Amino acid sequence: MNTNTHLLPQTTDPSPWESALYAFLAEKHRRTGSVRTVQSYSRILRCFFVRMQKTPDQVTSAEVMGFCFGKGLSGREPAAITIGSRIATISSFFRFLIRMQMLTSNPCDALERPKHNAAPARGLGADDVKKLLAVIPDTVAGRRDRAIVLTLVLTGRRRSEVLNLTAKDIDIQEERAFYCYRGKGGKQDRRELPRPAIDAIRLTLTDAGKCLSTMTPDESLWRISQPTAYARFRRYLVIAGLPPTGFHVLRHSAAKLRRDAGESVESVSQFLDHSSLAVTTVYLRRLEVAEDTSWGKVAEAIGV
Q: Which of 26, 48, 128, 166 has a CB 3.0–4.6 Å from the CB of 124, allowing a cystine?
């Protein structure tokens, strides 16, 4: 993890605050396994402490509020989600300092976090997924892309959890395949890999002249960077006549397809690794559209 931790006012010798900040970022990396998350935390904290020119024990609630609700480098008013992200990051660092017994209070506790309306979740139905798969070409690159899409749809895992899979994460036992992944919050788990996904993975590895049994443990399954995979995925969506979006739509799709197939909310919750049924219920409610069974009678009544 290459993250700049020189965010606080500097002294001749490294201060306890600098050491605490490095420990905080290291802990975040260990728990999430995401360099991007750590970089985001680091960027917000760097901006805050450089602007304040104060150590954490000198920061007031009013100063935190001014930073979180203030304009950024763009000169625009921050969106509610940006304000929430700033507050969450700074608050998380102060909670860490309290756990380390370096502080006794968190200036963010006095702040009220703004509410923001979540964008409607989008999930592809079975026909949409068929359209998407149909436009992926039967080429070496296309077969790799198809394997990625199938793995995402059939496992419901997040983009990074699939694109970071390596040879050591796949375990073949007789007629069944299993995969290990590191999920959100650093959770590690092992699940069965659906047959169409492992078949597609084997095919794309054969294209590359590779075999799971002879690959080095840390060798990637995919031979493609995440930005390139993202760009190719969006292009397939456009060709299929579907709204261009990110890979997360396939996680939504996986949940929707399982629910449409008759799975219970509890099963979908476990499938998605959600922290509670309440999270899954909200997730599915945003994907499902309520059926209107009365519009016909109203239309008849008004003569249309």
A: 128
pTM over 0.85: no
Please tell me the distance from the alpha carbon of residue 123 to that of residue 255, in angstroms, as a whole number: 8
Print pLDDT tens along the chain (304 aa).
444 444 555 545 668 999 999 999 999 888 877 788 899 999 999 999 999 999 999 999 999 999 999 987 677 888 888 899 999 999 999 999 999 999 999 999 999 888 766 555 578 889 999 999 999 999 999 999 999 999 999 999 999 899 999 999 999 998 899 999 887 766 788 999 999 999 999 999 999 999 999 999 999 999 999 999 999 999 999 999 999 999 999 998 988 888 888 888 888 888 887 766 666 666 666 565 544 555 556 556 546 5
What tokens were used for 70?
């203030």
Q: Which of 174, 259, 169 is nearest to 216 (CA)?
A: 169
- Topology of the domain covering 16-110: DNA polymerase; domain 1 (1.10.150)
Nearest C-alpha neighbor of 80 from the set 48, 119, 42: 119
CA-to-CA separations, 228 to 92, 145, 222, 246, in angstroms, rounded: 33, 11, 11, 12
